[in-house]
Design brief:
Elements (H helix, E strand, L loop, with lengths): L11 H13 L2 E6 L7 H12 L21 E8 L2 E11 L7 H5 L1 H9 L4 E9 L1 H6 L3 H16 L3 E6 L4 H8 L2 E7 L8 E7 H11 L7 H8 L10 E3 L7 H11 L1
Parallel strand pairs: 4-5
Antiparallel strand pairs: 1-2, 1-8, 2-3, 3-4, 5-7, 6-7
Helix pairs in contact: 6-9
Length: about 260
């Protein structure tokens, strides 16, 4: 009797990871010069905040603040099939450069960490195009992949998340973040936030094992986080997660970079 070959049954987690990798084949990231307030990401922010009544109307129809002008800021647009679907802003905090919105909300919590020589990334202004949130339920993963890349590129100690309390479970589950501090008010938001943080040297191997689509190549990270040059804000950088095979391969790539 002939044996019939069968494919191994994928778990729900494996199917989800494969779906994300398939979508990432269509994803490109674009670094934005935050001085160019006419960039579409500022209108995307405005539309998202206006939908939730988090922001008063303004004639420019953009959402920007003083943190967009900080020396340690990195702003990005996320594109699927060439269309802008979401954006995020990241600040790289070091003992010598202490500028970020969440540091201003939690100076008593984050200041001592910086005093001890720690570094961290502070992702904020995560906003998405309304229809894209319905079409791509996994959009938060595709966007927050930039925070994972920033954590690896800058080799930080912590990746922060200042979010509504009900969103904390997502960051604990996906990024193995811990709750650092409780409810506080953030100027301009209509809801209180809680502070979570992932201790990168401790959790990165497990996070990447569970969510391989968060991996990236040194070339992708360098293209996204190197100093802005002439015309660099118009360059679309494709995702490279599929090119990085397994956590051991990822560690080897990081060590050889």
């Amino acid at each position: 009797m002939l044996a019939i070959a069968t494919k191994p049954v994928q778990s729900a987690a494996e199917r989800f990871n494969q779906t994300l990798l398939d979508i990432l084949d269509r994803v490109e990231y674009r670094r934005v010069d935050p001085r160019r307030r006419e960039d579409p990401i500022f209108r995307l922010r405005y539309d998202a905040y206006r939908r939730e009544a988090f922001l008063p109307e303004n004639p420019q129809q953009i959402a920007a603040d003083k943190y967009d002008d900080a020396p340690n800021v990195y702003c990005f647009g996320v594109h699927i099939d060439g269309e802008l679907v979401s954006s995020i802003r990241i600040h790289h905090l070091t003992p010598d450069c202490r500028v970020s919105p969440i540091l201003d909300v939690y100076p008593d919590v984050l200041g001592p960490l910086l005093d001890r020589g720690c570094s961290m990334v502070d992702p904020t202004r995560f906003t998405a195009e309304r229809d894209a949130t319905l079409t791509y339920p996994a959009l938060p993963f595709l966007t927050l992949r930039l925070a994972a890349m920033a954590s690896a590129h800058f080799e930080v100690d912590y990746c922060l998340a200042a979010v509504r309390q009900e969103h904390g479970a997502f960051y604990k589950r996906v990024f193995l973040a811990e709750h650092l501090a409780g409810e506080r008010e953030y100027k301009g938001l209509a809801f209180p936030i809680h502070l979570y943080a992932a201790h990168i040297p401790v959790v990165d191997a497990e996070v990447y094992r569970r969510r391989p689509f968060l991996m990236s190549s040194p070339a992708e990270r360098e293209a996204l986080f190197s100093p802005l040059g002439s015309g660099s804000t118009q360059v679309m950088i494709p995702a490279t997660a599929r090119d990085v095979r397994g956590i051991e391969g990822y560690r080897n790539i990081r060590e050889s970079a």
